[in-house]
Design goal:
Blueprint: E1 6-10, H1 15-26, E2 30-35, E3 45-48, H2 54-68, E4 73-76, H3 91-119, E5 122-127, H4 130-134, H5 140-160, E6 165-172, H6 178-181, H7 185-193, H8 203-213, E7 225-228
Parallel strand pairs: 1-2, 1-4, 2-3, 4-5, 5-6, 6-7
Helix pairs in contact: 1-8, 2-3, 3-5
Amino acid sequence: MTTPRTVLVTGGNRGIGYTIAEEFVAAGHRVAVTARSGSGPEGSLTVVADVTDPESVDAAFTTVEAALGPVEVVVANAGITRDVLLMRMTEEDFSSVVDTNLGGAFRVVKRASKNMLKARFGRIVLVSSVVGLYGGAGQANYAASKSALVGFARSLTREVGARGITANVVAPGFVETDMTAVLAPEKQAEYKKSIPAGRYGTATEVARTITWLAGDDAAYISGAVIPVDGGLGMGH
């Protein structure tokens, strides 16, 4: 049985983030989620936060700490896409995606690290994407923000690895979510053909990889990129 921890999942109000929070609750952890709107699963505490605003992030942590204790596990999952070909990509298309996906992870992890360093324990999991290392047409902004998380996690590992803190990246591939559900059937078939497993993943498969990484059994894994993509991004 993994030790119960205080866990914060950013963007935990829908999709993969919601399922991640659900799995942590099911495993007996004290779970909080940040959301700009909506709420996390039953049994979790929802705090309203905008990961692009350091004061908002700080206030969210203060609320969680008062209710559940110092955050021991942080899952940086909040992210946005603004897919558009480079020639048409605006400054705002680029900077908003990078500021949310990469800047958001930086702000959340920086705030979490204070207590982790004191406690000499911490689990940092950054949710990237197969696109981060595989690339995606029309996704220069998103792919850049997601691949940058690898350098971030590895630098963190070198900085705080001796303090009982791990920092890892999980890179999901195509997962059954509202976003993939709206794709035309022929588009879905085409995507599935490129995945060796021949199917989309489930949010639960991603979430359980993350709960395992945050648990006692993964204490000696840090700076790793764990793909959960059915073999799509092999070699990265």
